[in-house]
Write a structure and sequence with these properties.
Layout lengths: L10 H8 L1 H4 L2 H7 L6 E5 L5 H10 L5 E6 L2 H14 L4 E5 L16 E7 L2 H6 L5 H14 E12 L5 H15 L1 H6 L8 H12 L2 E14 L4 H9 L1 H4 L6 H17 L8 E13 L1
Parallel strand pairs: 1-2, 1-4, 2-3, 4-5
Antiparallel strand pairs: 5-7, 6-7
Helix pairs in contact: 1-11, 7-10, 8-13, 11-13
């Protein structure tokens, strides 16, 4: 059984700091190309915003979408949102993506499509020093799909939020040393070549049909730089004891990034780089 992990997420904090994430998923949803009879598994569904949108197509046929996420808080929010929306084609379940291989009812090759948006850099980041476990994830995703099924996913790509990452690593490293800071960096941002190699060569049974990286500077949400840093940078700060030292570190990161990310026309721009992939199960 997987060990219990701290849940860093809440739907309210996410909407305050990153409501733009599902809003900017238009292209990867187009790559998914949901059809009314598709049976879709969403890996890292968050609070279910995209699932509820996709189910409007599925409601016209026999299709369904099953959202999974490691965060019980996000699954609770997604379930409630779907209930309020009358989204009967949506179901949700708290499942860590790295435990997909040990979740038998999701390993029956019953899904016609797999989907993931803005989640896999966290999933693969949680095992970034364990290449075998990264491979296991892609093997388990393959085994969830019916033959010929597709996996459309978008995640942080090489160079994603580089300024945010540098500020976080720098501030934390000054207090605990770089190796310790790196050990608390939760992200993994690969490029197209890495994805193609692991899926087609290391794991096998996949054909990467499309892959691209896009630089997409994004305006910070209502929570500004501080909201983003406190939500997405939370695991960096766990290298420090809770209290004054941690707050001083957070303040240092925020102060630097408000200078670096500040736009002359107002607001703050964050340097997002998105990696999109469409792969087919052979």
């Amino acid at each position: 059984m997987a060990e219990d992990k701290k849940d860093h997420w809440s739907s309210e904090a996410y909407q305050h700091a990153a409501s733009f994430v599902p809003k900017l998923a238009t292209k990867i949803v187009q790559w998914l190309d949901p059809q009314k009879d598709n049976v879709i598994l969403d890996i890292g569904c968050g609070d279910g915003v995209l699932n509820i949108q996709i189910q409007e197509i599925l409601a016209q046929g026999s299709g369904s979408i099953h959202g999974t996420d490691a965060s019980p808080a996000m699954i609770e929010a997604a379930t409630e949102a779907a209930k309020k929306a009358g989204a009967s084609k949506c179901t949700f379940e708290a499942v860590d993506a790295l435990e997909l291989a040990r979740t038998p009812h999701l390993q029956r090759a019953q899904y016609t499509k797999l989907f993931s948006n803005a989640a896999l850099h966290w999933v693969l980041g949680a095992c970034k020093t364990d290449a075998a476990r990264q491979s296991e994830f892609f093997a388990a995703a393959r085994d969830a799909l019916a033959p010929g099924g597709t996996f459309a996913f978008e995640m942080g790509g090489l160079g994603n939020v580089a300024e945010m990452r540098a500020a976080l690593l720098g501030a934390v490293a000054r207090r605990v040393g770089l190796p310790e800071a790196v050990g608390h960096d939760p992200w993994f941002f690969p490029d197209e070549a890495w994805v193609t190699q692991i899926m087609e060569d290391t794991v096998g049974g996949w054909k990467v049909e499309r892959a691209e990286r896009e630089y997409r500077p994004t305006m910070a949400d209502v929570g500004g730089v501080e909201g983003w840093v406190r939500l997405f940078g939370a695991q960096f700060f766990e290298a420090l004891p809770d209290g004054k030292e941690r707050e001083e570190c957070i303040r240092e990161v925020v102060d630097v990034l408000e200078v670096v990310c500040g736009s002359p026309s107002g607001g703050f721009h964050l340097g997002y780089v998105r990696l999109r992939v469409l792969a087919r199960k052979l």
